[in-house]
Amino acid sequence: MEKIWAAGRSLLGEYLKMGYEAYFVGGAVRDHLLHLPVEEIDIATNALPQVSLNHFPNVYPSGLSFGTVTVMWEGYPFEVTTFRKEMYGVRGRNPLSVIFADRLEEDLERRDFTINAMAMDQGGRVIDPWGGRKDLEDRKIRAVGDPSLRFKEDGLRLLRAIRFAANLSFHIDPETWEALRSERAQIREVSLERIVQEIGKVLHSSHPEVGVELISEAELLFTLTERKILSFFGGIEDELLRWAILFSAVKPANEIPFHYTSLPLRREIRDEVHFLLEKYQETKRRSIEEILHMGFREPFSRLRRLYLFQCVKNGEVPHEKLLEREFARLPLPDRRDLPIKGVDLIT
Q1: 234 vs 195, higher pLDDT
Q2: Share of the chain above pLDDT 70, in %
Q3: What is 1-138's CATH topology?
Q4: N or C end: fewer C-beta atoms under 10 angstroms in the chain?
């Protein structure tokens, strides 16, 4: 994605020509230093939002209350935010007020973790007042400044720390981990919608089993009742199956109603979790052949998911080739989702 970086450097140049400072910040800098693909880039500047709105032909106010505009530049959208400080109330969650800052360092100081508190200028020089680069080398998630304060400012950061650890295969710094555990009540101040969104990211991460185990150890949302499922998570790419396995093997904790009937899940997720949990009670001791002949009028994709769910719950290695072979032997009226198209019949 070198093109997006070239476009970004060009955009930084526009601000520099106007006499302002401008830097790449946040996740883009982190992922660049980790040699990971970057699909979007955020920019921080001392230019007020109105400067961008007046100067660029393709710009819109995407978050003016936070000092953010989105500039379309050379075919890419860039979120450009004025340097800022944030003032939080006792209950955190959202800043009570946003105050524009004079210096980049003030802007970086408000961020959650050191690996997200770096900036990079047009020439590639990294500004790193909190030691984020060293933490990348040490594969460490560490809060900026006082970790308890960072978590009090926004309880979702408790989950974000775990999600970064799961996605990057990093460990959480001991002081940050202790603060995470001691401040876990802060998650109750976070909306269930934000919690579900973040859990979805954990389940989509490179190592969801790491995230699930850390959440359980911290007693943040749930505790594990079946640890054996952890060894299977990494080999499962099916999103709906991951959700079902999670709900089948945890119990709520920390006064969070962590149950599929209580959370604002997509209907597709809720329906599939319900189907798998319900049908598993009927199939958990049955063979592939028995499952396929139980009369479920379901497409193969759903029966496959049920079979894999059963294997995980029973601690068994799935035999997908056998499943496909047995499905192919079913009478035609019971076979759904056949990989045959009209053109195949014509030919």
Answers
A1: 195
A2: 86
A3: Beta Polymerase; domain 2 (3.30.460)
A4: C
207-210 long-range Cβ contacts below 8 angstroms, 24+ apart: 207/166, 207/167, 207/169, 207/233, 207/234, 208/166, 208/233, 208/234, 208/242, 209/233, 209/234, 210/165, 210/166, 210/169
CA-based torsion, 105, 111, 115, 118: positive or negative: negative
Q: Is 230 helix (H, G, I), strand (E, B) or coil?
A: helix
CB atoms under 10 Å from CB of 49, counted, come to 21
The CATH superfamily label for domain 139-265 reads: cca-adding enzyme, domain 2 (1.10.3090.10)
Calpha distance 88→295 (Å, rounded): 57
On the question of pLDDT at 175 being above 90, the answer is: yes
Q: Write the pLDDT tens digit of every residue in 189-216.
A: 999 999 999 999 999 999 999 999 999 9
Residue 23 has pLDDT above 90, yes or no: yes
Distance CA 345, CA 269 (A): 35
- CA 125, CA 32: separation in Å to the nearest integer? 12
pTM tops 0.85: yes
Question: How far does CA 347 lie from the centroid of its chain?
Answer: 45
Number of CB atoms found within 10 A of residue 327's CB: 20
Domain boundaries, the chain: 1-138, 139-265, 282-347
Task: Tell me how crowded residue 20 is: count the other CB atoms within 10 A of its CB.
Answer: 17
